[in-house]
Amino acid sequence: MVGRDDLQLGRGYFGTGALGHGGRLNDLLGVSFTDTYKESRIGYVLFHPGIVSTSFSGEYDAAAAAQVAGLKVFGKSVQESIAQIIPCIDSPPVDRLSAFVEGRRIAVDNRFFDSQDAARLHKITEGLLAG
What we know:
Layout: H1 15-36, E1 44-48, H2 62-74, H3 78-90, E2 97-101, E3 104-106, H4 115-130
Parallel strand pairs: 1-2
Antiparallel strand pairs: 2-3
């Protein structure tokens, strides 16, 4: 699992890397949901819209500010991102777990969607939520 021993990226934090890390963890929580609730009729759709140019509000050091400036330049508009998601809302996938990147469906039967990593993250998450 990404950041196996450092889920909060306390060592070697890098802004855009943290975005990818959070997305990876979210993907694993989707796997965990479908593994935990096998009898559920609920479908879990993972959707990565790509880089989206948002307000990126906050205070940044010089390095992070440069990253944010680049994201604003290369990111697509919020409207473009929403347009990519609409087809999944209008015609939801029938699979229990599906994933999309910028509107293109990707496979979920590979190491990035590993059930063991998902179970480990699920257990850690439950522990954190229990206090």
